[in-house]
Write a structure and sequence with these properties.
It contains four helices and 16 strands. It is mostly beta strands. The protein folds into two domains: 2-37, no CATH class; 53-397, Porin (Beta Barrel), CATH 2.40.160. Strands 1-2-3-4-5-6-7-8-9-10-11-12-13-14-15-16 form a 16-stranded antiparallel beta barrel. The longest helix has 16 residues, at 22-37. It is globular and about 90 Å long. The two termini are 42 Å apart.
Length: 404
């Protein structure tokens, strides 16, 4: 209010000053600019809690398009739901061009208390799927946040990521082996707490109603027997160029009963299952590019599963992991390698398998990228499968940030 009160006086004084008072008028103008730029006292600061009209009426809309060309010695033994699919006989060479995924995103502020996000995907042109559709609180006290709807669980690291956030064109083998072909993505409720600490520490609890048959680990529970999950995530920088992100997950639910056929209704809960996992993300990125563009990211994740015995399912313990290293070699060039391993130890539920892959990626901008990838996969006693993939990804519209 003080700044607006002196504005007419300052203007009048500046206009009335004689020619030999130009310097004095300039000094007064500078003082006036300082007053106008100064922040208002806390008692006068106003924060609007009402979203803009455009945010209420017109949600942010985005589209991401992934087209892949590939060739393989024969079809993959294991694929996630958003891996590229090339139709062909199981025992012969396959390949072609596939629309790996089209993702449509809509997001907006609902009111001062909630935000909503909807992500629709069309994987391999096989129909529209709801990848995520949830509401999330924005103003709970003490660092608390609630999310409800259909969402990707906080289990591990890569499960929360959409396809375009992946560094490789195929999901890790542990995704479909332990979380289901589409990952752990179900209706439910999530409560998270960001602790008031000098570093990032978030605790998360989830109750998920997993669809029957959605995966061997948690696809056998009745609707009134939800899958329960707890997760902790820690992020901390050390030095100017290094940072580390650690996560741990424990989940309990019911596995898919033996002989279950997709689409059948469950009459009883399947065998009790317990899943535990950990993940690591270590990154080196200098704060500026004076000495070059080199950056490194090491990512690893593991799961261990126990399945209790029933009349149809024997007790089993198995585990799997992946580790990858991705390097930015120049401003627009990346290269990376990844190794996946399943069945450590192997069980009647999970066979032993491994996959090795390498990729080179060119990113003309933040909205497009081209990636060439080659891999070798071998599951149990089967013959090795060799495959090469070339991806083009395009992004348009206002796409919101996903969890890091």
């Amino acid at each position: 209010m003080f700044a607006y009160a002196i504005l007419p006086i300052a203007l009048f004084t500046a206009e009335a000053a004689p020619p030999d008072g130009v310097a004095a008028g300039a000094d007064l103008a500078r003082q006036l600019d300082d007053v106008l730029a100064a922040p208002a006292p806390p008692s006068q600061t106003r924060v609007s809690a009402t979203p803009t009209a455009s945010g209420l009426m017109n949600p942010d809309i985005s589209a991401i398009f992934d087209v892949v060309g590939g060739a393989a010695s024969r079809p993959r033994a294991s694929s996630a739901g958003d891996d590229p699919s090339f139709d062909g006989p199981v025992s012969s060479r396959t390949g072609g061009i596939a629309i790996q995924e089209i993702e449509i995103g809509l997001q907006s502020t609902v009111d001062p208390y909630l935000t909503a996000r909807l992500y629709l995907t069309i994987p391999n042109l096989e129909g529209v799927e709801v990848e995520e559709a949830y509401a999330m609180t924005t103003s709970l006290p003490a660092g608390l946040q609630i999310k409800t709807g259909v969402f990707r669980s906080a289990a591990g690291r890569q499960n929360e990521q959409h396809l375009h956030q992946q560094d490789f064109s195929l999901r890790p083998l542990i995704n479909q082996a332990y979380l289901g072909a589409d990952g752990l993505r179900s209706p439910g409720v999530q409560v998270s707490w960001l602790l008031p600490l000098p570093f990032f520490l978030r605790l998360t609890g989830e109750a998920l109603s997993v669809e029957p048959g959605a995966g061997s680990t948690f696809g056998g529970g009745l609707r009134h027997s939800p899958t329960l999950l707890g997760n902790v995530k820690v992020f901390a920088p050390f030095g100017e160029s290094w940072s580390v992100f650690l996560g741990g997950t424990v989940a309990s639910g019911h596995g898919t009963p033996a002989g279950y056929v997709d689409g059948d209704a469950l009459d009883a809960n399947g065998p009790r299952t317990l899943l535990a996992g950990g993940d690591l993300y270590l990154k080196y990125m200098p704060p500026n590019q004076v000495a070059g563009y080199l950056a490194l990211a090491l990512q690893a994740e593991c799961f261990w599963r126990k399945t209790w015995s029933t009349l149809d399912v024997p007790a089993a313990r198995d585990a799997g992991f992946y580790a990858q290293l991705v390097a930015r070699l120049a401003r627009r060039w990346h290269a990376g390698i990844r190794f996946d391993q399943l069945g450590l130890p192997a069980s009647e539920i999970q066979l032993r398998g491994a996959r090795m892959m390498a990729m080179a990626m060119f990113t003309p901008s933040e909205f497009s990228r081209v990636r060439l990838q080659a891999q070798r996969e071998k599951i149990d006693e089967g013959t090795a499968i060799y495959e090469a993939l070339l991806l083009l990804e395009l992004s348009i519209g206002a796409h919101g940030a996903h969890p890091f």
